[in-house]
Give the backbone structure.
Amino acid sequence: MYSENKRNFDVFSLVIGILLIFLGGYSLYRPDTTLAFISIMIGIIAIIKGIYELWFRRGISFWLGEKSGWLLVMGILDIILGLIFIFKIAVGASFIAVIFAVWFIFDAITQLATANFFKRLDKGYYWVIVILSILSLIMGIMLLFNPMLSALTIVWIISIYLITIGILKIIQAF
């Protein structure tokens, strides 16, 4: 018997795809707004984490009779950092840019340190890892000394991601 596998048009995926492409384009057009949004979101997450740590400290004290000074300090620090990220957006965006650059540097160093494991397996792959890691290290150092470039790189990555997922959602709709 012949069975027809006909897909229905998915309006929801089309709308989400168009929205994601719009957001990706907007974030490319307005990187300052995108960085402000990221800073505010990180601030909100830090405040929630700080409140959770204080609540968790209270629970440990109540149930186990233990008092954790570290949880108290970390909870208060997270709340303060969260407030800084929300109300001093330029500071938050700069901090995000520096962390992004440091992440590149540490990742490159880690890749270089583990490259020797691949030397015995495949010398071609080993050299690819070494070359890409050195390039990543150079890029990380450049980003560290140019926070504006680092911040723009973050925005570009987010924008390209949003646009790519948007295109995939539109394709999925049909």
User: Anything to note?
Assistant: Residues 31-64 form the longest helix (34 residues). The CA atoms of residues 4 and 67 lie 66 Å apart. The helical segments are 11-29, 31-64, 69-87, 89-114, 116-119, 123-145, 147-173. DSSP finds seven helices and no strands in the chain.
